[in-house]
Automatic annotation (TrEMBL):
Residues 117-313 form the Metallo-beta-lactamase domain. It comes from Cytobacillus purgationiresistens. This is L-ascorbate metabolism protein UlaG (Beta-lactamase superfamily). Gene3D superfamilies: Ribonuclease Z/Hydroxyacylglutathione hydrolase-like. InterPro entries: Metallo-B-lactamas, NAPE-PLD, RibonucZ/Hydroxyglut_hydro.
């Protein structure tokens, strides 16, 4: 009897957490649901990739990964602090050139034709729904706190995983952002966190949105979504993004396995002056949803990329490889493929279209 009572209480607690814990997000509005149901990507109650993307992860695979995680991977985190450049808000605002600043992992601050864009803002110390639990950020500081940022014209979200869509960051940012551009279904999270619906634009793949003279295009990625338990998986869309001005073209991959969509995007919107492509947090078991560095360099070629900045590394350990493996392998692949690869420090400004770009091995 006592065991039954304990099971019931545990079930109720889990239910209440999943239903009411704010970081888990919210549900889509009726209007959003109508658009979701009409999406070609939404089939049998879930969003799907363009091509079959099995994610068969057996109980044995889960157990093996848990054991390896507990044992730890040598050099899975930096042994000491690495250099981080401080953000100069005045210089960012006064500099007329198009530029991008990497904040670690997939958080990026861009200025394109004077328009200020913030991509996948995660400023919290942990990439998880619970503070002090889950993947912890390598560094004790960031180039800037949210309060130090200028007014942002648009925040762009690729998908709703915790290392790309962060509750605490959105709550702090929302008063300093003109609008949020997100994939279908993601608005439900933002409205629950206090963002007014009229400031959110939800896009399906190949939809375009004008922002202060720029054109933002939601383009395919090969991934998945979900942050509120098994039932929420696939309820929101995942995207890569194209940013176009009169003079500059930028491609951001979001999270993605390798696939034919890169060539398709390149044919429609390339070539690109700069690409920001996922290059870390891979595993052979996740080959369909995360690229190896060698595949990332090939994806850059497929989209017609010029200068490439490797992202999705340098902040959190989410896989079993060493923390420097992504950038070391990316540099090697770039040399073999004759690709221009920028390796900025976190916080270092990269000028789009410049002939000189950061290339130091700062992680060594």
């Amino acid at each position: 009897m006592k065991l039954l009572i304990l099971v019931v209480i545990s079930a109720i607690v889990i239910f209440l957490i999943l239903k009411y814990h704010p970081p888990l997000g919210g549900k889509s509005s009726a209007e959003s649901q109508s658009r979701i149901q009409a999406s070609p990507q939404f089939i049998n109650g879930k969003f799907h990739n363009q091509i079959p993307t099995p994610m068969d992860y057996s109980i044995k695979d889960t157990a093996d990964a848990l054991i390896k995680t507990i044992k730890g991977t040598p050099n899975s985190r930096p042994r000491e602090n690495f250099p981080i450049d401080s953000f100069d808000s005045n210089a960012f605002k006064e500099n007329k050139e198009d530029q991008v600043i990497w904040f670690g992992h997939s958080t990026l601050l861009l200025k394109v034709n004077g328009v200020k864009l913030l991509i996948d803002p995660v400023f919290s110390d942990y990439a998880s729904p619970v503070p002090f639990f889950g993947p912890k950020r390598y560094s004790d500081k960031l180039p800037a706190e949210i309060e130090d940022l200028p007014e942002i014209d648009a925040v762009i979200i690729s998908h709703d995983h915790y290392d790309h869509l962060d509750y605490g960051s959105i709550r702090k940012l929302k008063g300093n952002v003109k609008q949020f551009i997100v994939p279908l279904g993601v608005a439900g999270h933002l409205t629950k966190w206090g963002v007014e619906p009229e400031r959110i634009k939800e896009l399906d793949w190949w939809d375009e949105e004008a922002v202060e003279g720029l054109t933002l295009i939601s383009t395919p990625a090969r991934h998945f979504s979900g942050r509120g338990g098994i039932s929420s998986g696939g309820s929101t869309l995942w995207s890569s993004w194209v940013i176009v001005s009169d003079q500059t073209r930028v491609y951001y991959s979001g999270d993605s396995g390798y696939g034919p969509h890169f060539k398709e995007i390149g044919d429609q919107y390339g070539p690109f002056d700069i690409t920001l492509i996922e290059t870390g947090q891979y595993d052979e078991k996740w080959a369909n949803i995360h690229m190896t560095p060698e595949e990332s360099l090939q994806a850059n070629l497929d989209v017609g990329g010029g200068l490439m900045i490797p992202i999705h590394w340098g902040a959190f350990t989410l896989a079993l490889h060493t923390w420097t493996d992504p950038i070391e392998r990316a540099k090697s692949a770039a040399e073999q493929l004759n690709v221009a690869l920028a390796t900025p420090r976190i916080g270092e400004t990269v000028t789009i279209g410049a002939t000189k770009y950061p290339s130091a091995n700062w992680w060594k």
